[in-house]
Specification:
single chain; alpha/beta; five-stranded parallel sheet; globular
């Protein structure tokens, strides 16, 4: 898909996110908006996956695990727009007895979702299991993950990071959404983590800094570079320097939209800033 067409999907996914969260006055728009470009790049350009015939085991295809499950609005929108389920189902977000719960779960059988996530810190461990299984089975597909930078305050992440390099799990690309914000404020104020590059490198990972984490061209180049590093004994970490609330001006530059829904007036403003390109649900 061309960068122009990818940008059109990005615009539509932003609209989906704010409409979904507004409709139920609940959800997490800030981090969702900040990760749109990365997930659109993955699902519409870089991942080898089969939306028409989803299988939980993911044999023979690339798989993705969302570890920071609270940004489910962007995950659901991207999956729907990529063809995993009908776009109209986005209207059921966070409603009782539906498949699109606030944090992704598996017992509803939603296509594209392979793990329940939302309890932060667990996704990297799950991804390591999947990546190891692929290596044991001679499956040369790639395992991708996404994590929040605040999530890296969880100790399980670093246990998994240590395991990944020690066991040479070199078919794994883990991305971190480095927006430097979490629900209670900046990550530095809550629990400063110092240099994430230095930490991952100390744990034996190859690290790629993506200074423009909301730029499709920069993301495209970084994912391509990461793929080129696989198969050489090290997992790869992408540090995506993003803006929480990206694409909606009043949500950017603050942590306050981590888990707050826009009102009617704010929704209208957010939609006006993002053109409808593929048709709203």
């Amino acid at each position: 898909m061309s960068q122009e067409n990818l940008q059109a999907v990005v615009s539509q996914v932003r609209r989906d996110i704010v409409r979904m969260v507004h409709a139920v006055n609940s959800g997490h728009p800030g981090g969702s908006l900040g990760c749109v470009e990365y997930l659109v790049s993955l699902y519409f350009k870089h991942m080898n996956h089969n939306a028409a015939d989803f299988k939980m085991d993911g044999v023979g295809e690339d798989v993705f695990f969302l570890s920071n499950g609270h940004i489910s609005p962007v995950m659901y929108s991207v999956l729907a727009r990529a063809g995993y389920f009908d776009v109209s189902e986005l209207a059921t977000f966070r409603k009782l007895n539906t498949r699109l719960q606030g944090h992704p779960t598996t017992h509803e059988g939603l296509e594209g979702i392979r793990i329940a996530s939302g309890s932060l810190g667990q996704g990297l461990s799950v991804a390591l299991g999947a990546a190891t299984a692929k290596k044991l089975n001679g499956d040369d597909s790639i395992v991708f993950t996404l994590h929040g930078d605040g999530e890296l305050q969880e100790g399980q992440i670093w246990e998994a990071a240590m395991y990944a390099s020690a066991k040479k799990v070199d078919n794994l690309i883990a991305a971190v959404d480095v927006n430097e914000k979490q629900i209670d404020g900046s990550t530095d104020d809550v629990l400063a983590m110092g240099s994430l590059r230095a930490k991952f490198e100390a744990f034996g990972w190859d690290v790629i800094d993506v200074e423009q984490g909301n730029d499709l061209n920069a993301i495209d180049a970084a994912i391509s570079e990461a793929k080129g590093k696989l198969g050489h004994g090290k997992p790869v970490c992408l540090l995506l320097r993003t803006e929480m609330g990206n694409g909606v001006d009043f949500m950017m530059g603050t942590h306050k939209w981590h888990g707050v829904a826009p009102n009617d007036e704010q929704l209208a403003s957010a939609l006006a800033q993002n053109e409808e390109t593929l048709g709203d649900y």
